[in-house]
Amino acid sequence: MTSLKSSARWRRRKAARPQEIQEAALVVFAEKGFAATRMEDIAAQAGVTKGTIYLYFQSKEAVFKSLLQESVGRTIDGVAELASSYTGSAADLLRAILSAIGTFMRTSDRVVLLKVLLAESGNFPDLITFYRRELIDRGLALLAGVVARGIARGEFRDMIPDHAARLCIAPILLSGIWRTVFGRLDKEPFDYAGFLETHIDTLLRGLAAEKGAGA
């Protein structure tokens, strides 16, 4: 007869299984790329059967999408929640948002997913469409909204918010690509934190309304 303690341990293991599968999949995707990865490879890395993975994920694509949502999507959800209740200046809000995204790009192991996507985008348009619709478009809309708020308040100079949003994120995306593709070739570890601060300071100076422009 199964003890209460054994039953509770089994339930905890079952609850943790999706995350264990995601962690294993991340390792395999990073090593083999998306196309070459098989569900059998993920199962072997996770120490489970292929059938176990199908209890939680319908396909390899579903595993990959869940990794994107759990990492990039969660970051966007966090900054969106911050923006919805923020009462300070648009500049301070923009700094907080870009700092959060930049910290993810320079510290999370999930950033390798971006490299995998870019490497195989031509063969898997559905994944690119998903990434664009669920993550990129949401993030750009959020940033454009903050810029528009700053323009309306007279904090930022008049400009096209959508253009400014792309300027906000482009250097941060570059840092993620650099870290996963070129970083291993750096003779000395690159100062990603310093780069992020330089980017934000330069950006905010460029966005700032000219003194006396509203007079």
Main features:
215 residues, Arc Repressor Mutant, subunit A, single chain, 9 helices, Tetracycline Repressor, domain 2, mainly alpha, 2 domains, 77% helix
* Average pLDDT metric: 89
Distance between the termini: 81 Å
Which homologous superfamily in CATH is the superfamily of the largest domain? Tetracycline Repressor, domain 2
Tell me the CATH architecture of the largest domain. Answer: Orthogonal Bundle
Major sheet description: none
Helix and strand composition category: mainly alpha
- CATH class type of the largest domain: Mainly Alpha
What is the CATH topology assignment of the largest domain? Answer: Tetracycline Repressor, domain 2
Enumerate how many helices there are, as a single number: 9
DSSP strand content:
under 5%
What this model shows, in words?
The chain folds into two domains: 1-57, Arc Repressor Mutant, subunit A (Orthogonal Bundle); 61-207, Tetracycline Repressor, domain 2 (Orthogonal Bundle), CATH 1.10.357.10. It is mostly helical and 215 residues long. The longest helix is centred in the N-terminal third of the chain and has 33 residues, at 4-36. The chain is built from nine helices and no strands. Mean pLDDT is 89; it is low at 4-12.
List the helices and strands and how they pair.
Layout: H1 4-36, H2 39-46, H3 50-54, H4 60-85, H5 90-107, H6 112-120, H7 125-152, H8 161-182, H9 192-207
Helix pairs in contact: 1-2, 1-4, 1-6, 4-5, 4-7, 5-7, 5-8, 5-9, 7-8, 8-9
